[in-house]
């Protein structure tokens, strides 16, 4: 029986999803952001013509991969934005520790790919900001806004505060992990997070926040 005009065959979306997943895994490899369209086709075990049939171009495929990464991260972003975790110090400590744990489990590779693909690119740069970087910042904004509304943090530009909270941590993790800074100038990341949170709360907490007690022994590294 002939297909209805304009309909796709039953396997089209399944195959497209397979190609997208294979491309995602290739792009997340250490050299993945520079992978050519041909190399992405080889990773998916199809011809360039087949990959072009499904996605049109390398740029369009990379945009689809970024959107897919965003969809995969939505449950974690929602938790980061809204899941209650006590008063402000406990809440922000949980947020930063969650960012650290996620980074070690693959979020860091996602951001390294996005930065490598997006820097200097008029289309992929804004896509990285929209799909991957801003969602993390906006999750921080939502958490901070709740603590401002509860009277625990001073009123401020919440976007600026989110940048102040998140960006030093992201830079520190890129330094240690994706740039292999741990091999030439190691950083005690756990201690850095504690000091960073103390500094942030001294600047933003309504009541004076005492610093967290020092940890015993040497801290863990990234």
Explain what you see.
- With 222 residues, this protein is mainly alpha-helical.
- The chain folds into 2 domains: 11-56, Arc Repressor Mutant, subunit A (Orthogonal Bundle); 63-204, Orthogonal Bundle (Tetracycline Repressor, domain 2).
- The chain is 68% helix and 0% strand.
- It has helices at 12-27, 37-44, 48-55, 58-82, 88-118, 124-149, 158-178, 189-204.
- 27% of the residues are buried.
- Keywords: DNA-binding.
- It holds the Pfam family TetR_N.
- Residues 36-55 bind DNA.
- InterPro entries: Homeodomain-like_sf, HTH-type_TetR-like_transc_reg, HTH_TetR, Tet_transcr_reg_TetR-rel_C_sf.
- Residues 13-73 form the HTH tetR-type domain.
Q: Which architecture of the largest domain would the CATH scheme give at its second level? A: Orthogonal Bundle
Helicity level: 55-70%
Overall residue-averaged pLDDT value: 93
Q: What's the CATH topology label of the largest domain?
A: Tetracycline Repressor, domain 2
- Measured by DSSP, the beta-strand proportion falls in under 5%
* Level-1 CATH class name of the largest domain: Mainly Alpha
The geometry reads as elongated
- Class by alpha and beta content: mainly alpha
Number of strands: 0
Number of helices: 8
Tell me the distance between the termini.
59 Å
Order of helices and strands: HHHHHHHH
Q: Which stretches are low in confidence, meaning pLDDT under 50 for 5 or more residues running?
A: none
Radius of gyration: 21 Å
Biggest sheet descriptor: none
Please, how many domains?
A: 2
Looking at CATH, the homologous superfamily of the largest domain is Tetracycline Repressor, domain 2
DNA-binding region: 36-55
InterPro entries: Homeodomain-like_sf, HTH-type_TetR-like_transc_reg, HTH_TetR, Tet_transcr_reg_TetR-rel_C_sf
Pfam family, one: TetR_N
Keywords: DNA-binding
């Amino acid at each position: 029986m002939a297909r209805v005009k304009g309909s796709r065959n039953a396997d089209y979306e399944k195959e497209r999803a397979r190609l997208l997943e294979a491309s995602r895994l290739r792009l997340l490899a250490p050299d993945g952001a520079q992978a050519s369209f041909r190399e992405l086709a080889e990773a998916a075990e199809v011809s360039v013509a087949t990959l072009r049939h499904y996605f049109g171009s390398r740029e369009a495929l990379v945009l689809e991969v970024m959107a897919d990464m965003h969809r995969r991260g939505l449950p974690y972003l929602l938790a980061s934005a809204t899941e209650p975790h006590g008063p402000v110090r406990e809440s922000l400590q949980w947020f930063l520790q969650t960012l650290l744990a996620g980074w070690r489990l693959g979020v860091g590779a996602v951001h390294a790919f996005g930065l490598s693909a997006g820097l200097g690119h008029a289309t992929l740069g804004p896509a990285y900001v929209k799909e991957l970087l801003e969602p993390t910042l906006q999750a921080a904004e939502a958490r901070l806004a709740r603590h401002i509304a509860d009277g625990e943090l001073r009123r401020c530009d919440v976007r600026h505060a989110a940048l102040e909270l998140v960006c030093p941590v992201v830079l520190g993790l890129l330094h240690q992990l994706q740039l292999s800074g741990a091999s030439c100038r190691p950083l005690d990341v756990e201690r850095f997070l504690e000091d960073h949170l103390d500094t942030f709360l001294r600047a933003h907490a309504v009541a004076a926040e005492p610093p967290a007690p020092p940890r015993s022994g040497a801290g863990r590294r990234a």
